[in-house]
Design goal:
581 residues, alpha+beta, six-stranded antiparallel beta sheet, five-stranded antiparallel beta sheet, 14 helices
């Protein structure tokens, strides 16, 4: 039929190898992923903070060096512009008409310029400039370019009464270095307009803006005092970054369009900005991520290799176990071959025990088959003997009736009823009414046997007569009352009443001599059953009660040496359909 599985074919599932690989990968990768995630969140902040702090510290150091260079220019320019002796000599030189006297003054001024330059190595080109003259350069320590014009220089700031320019190319005639410069007015007598012009040392900017201090590629932007001009000192930076670098109110560190911007605002009014690409900034983090990826790949390879080794270790014993199962179908007597793996050998040991038990069961089945024919013959005999006994008793009954022997006729009739109840083919489950009727017939035979020396009474509530009970439940109790309770004027009472809402109580009592506890235990013993002829015994009663009622029943025996014994049984009310007969 559709949807029905064919016998002998197990449902298709995942192989042990696949499951083993998946579990090992999960077991090895999951901790790595968790550790990697936690490490990434921690290391990212640590590395980014370290890199950012390093860039900020280097930027501050460069800015301080630039501030120091500007202060040196300021100090030197004040010597040339405010020192009274030099200013007086310059005034005299400008007013002197004699060439010889001018020549002497020129030598003195040049010596002073050289002296200041010698004592301040951060100063490069130094010159006195008179813009209105045909040759504006009056004095200089180095040769200057032709067409010396300060108006073309980029304005940087106004600081301490002087104008600063830069960064720009040097005015030195044979140099191409980038420098910062300063122009300060020199107050001389007369109507002459005179300035002192100073440049930083030709190699100073290369020393200040050194990318080796960062350990990565960093571009520098220098924003002038007014914020209107931004100089790209080194490298190439996108125009939008250049425009954003000099805006006022910018934070000390921000990320903009894939670039990290670090700002330093000098007390002198200018700003120095370090620009780092995000990829360069995160290079250390990327290196750590690549290492983690490599570690994950190596872990994957190791987990796969480990899964393969475990599978090889497990697959061999599994094949042996499967082989033993196949061999069992062919030859159940062959002993199993062990694998030298403790767990599998334990399974194979249990499998060997199962084979031994199967062999024993096969032998037992063979023995049972041999005895089956004997049981069939005995069964036929057990059916023939009661039938022959009934026919014989019926013959005796008719002879007694023909000869007018009423007592013998009554006795045989009662015996036939008792034998029919005891040896008949009816169900093991009967009603209380049927059990009472059988007890009456049995007790009537016993009274005839004992010449009516005891009384027998039955009291039963009509509403419980249809309740079902196991057959022979009361006969062993009545039989024991006769054997143990008979005395002069003996009496046996059977009382059956409803107990509670769904239970029935069965009581068998006598007025005999009674018994002690040892005698009661003897009556309950199995050995007593085998010694009593027709009686089945208390052990049978207890067995039937436990089988059919379990913990729902109770049996109590009350007796003493003063006389009388009472047996009380309480069982639930059940119908025949409630029993699995």
């Amino acid at each position: 039929m559709p949807g029905k599985k064919q016998a002998g074919h197990p449902p298709k599932g995942k192989s042990l190898r696949t499951t083993l690989v998946i579990y090992l990968l999960i077991g090895t990768l999951l901790p790595l992923l968790i550790v990697g995630f936690i490490s990434y969140t921690s290391i990212y902040s640590i590395l980014s903070g370290k890199i950012g702090s390093g860039i900020s510290a280097s930027l501050r150091q460069e800015a301080l060096s630039l501030e120091n260079a500007i202060d040196n220019l300021d100090f030197a320019s004040k010597q040339f512009a405010l020192d009274g002796q030099i200013v007086e000599e310059m005034s005299s030189f400008l007013q002197e008409k004699q060439i010889y006297r001018k020549s002497q003054m020129m030598n003195s001024i040049n010596q002073k310029i050289n002296l200041v330059n010698f004592t301040n190595p951060y100063i490069g080109l130094t010159a006195y400039i008179m813009p209105d003259s045909d040759d504006p350069v009056l004095f200089t320590n180095m040769s200057t370019r032709r067409g010396f014009d300060l108006s073309s220089l980029p304005s940087f700031m106004r600081y301490n009464g002087a104008d600063y320019y830069g960064p720009h190319g040097t005015m030195y005639a044979v140099g191409d270095n980038v420098v910062f410069s300063e122009r300060r007015i020199v107050r001389v007598s007369g109507q002459h307009e005179l300035y002192i012009y100073l440049e930083t040392n030709y190699s100073l900017l290369r020393k200040i803006f050194n990318q080796e201090a960062y350990g990565m590629k960093v571009n520098h932007l220098l924003v002038n005092q007014s914020g209107t001009l931004t100089h790209v000192i080194d490298g190439e930076v996108p125009e939008r970054i250049v425009q954003q670098a000099g805006r006022s109110g910018g934070s000390a560190h921000e990320v903009l369009n894939g670039y990290h911007l670090f700002r330093y605002e000098s007390p002198q009014g200018w700003k120095l900005v370090a620009v780092v690409k995000r990829s360069v900034f995160n290079s250390e983090i990327y290196t750590w991520i690549y290492k983690m990826i490599l570690l994950a790949l190596l872990t994957l390879l190791f987990a796969g290799f480990l899964a393969w080794l475990i599978w090889r270790r497990v697959y061999g014993p599994l094949r042996k176990v499967n082989l033993e199962i196949i061999r069992m179908a062919e030859n159940v007597t062959t002993p199993v071959a062990f694998t030298n793996v403790e767990e599998f050998d334990s399974v194979l040991s249990n499998f060997q025990q199962m084979k031994d038990q199967v062999n024993e069961l096969i032998l037992a089945v063979a023995r049972n088959e041999k005895q089956k024919s004997q049981f069939e013959i005995e069964k036929l005999l057990s059916q023939i003997n009661p039938h022959f006994l009934h026919n014989t008793l019926n013959t005796v009954q008719w002879l007694a009736r023909l000869n007018g022997q009423k007592e013998i006729d009554k006795l045989v009739t009662l015996l036939v009823k008792v034998l029919h109840y005891n040896l008949g083919k009816q169900s093991i489950i009967v009603t209380i009414g049927e059990e009472i009727e059988a007890i009456r017939n049995y007790m009537e035979l016993q009274r005839i046997r004992y010449d009516y020396e005891f009384e027998f009474n039955v009291e039963a509530d009509p509403e419980v007569l249809s309740a079902a009970v196991p057959r022979f439940l009361l006969q062993p109790l009545v039989e024991n009352s006769i054997y143990h309770g008979l005395s002069d004027n003996g009496k046996v009472d059977v009382i059956i009443t409803a107990h509670g809402t769904n239970e029935v109580q069965l009581i068998v009592k006598d007025n005999g001599a009674g018994m002690d506890q040892a005698k009661i235990e003897e009556l309950l013993a199995e050995e007593t059953v085998r010694r009593r002829g027709l009686g089945i015994g208390f052990a049978y009663v207890m067995r039937m009660l436990r089988v059919y009622y379990g913990e729902q029943m109770s049996l109590d025996i009350l007796s003493g040496e003063s006389g009388g014994t009472t047996v009380s049984i309480i069982i639930p009310i059940m119908s025949k359909e409630d029993f699995n007969d």
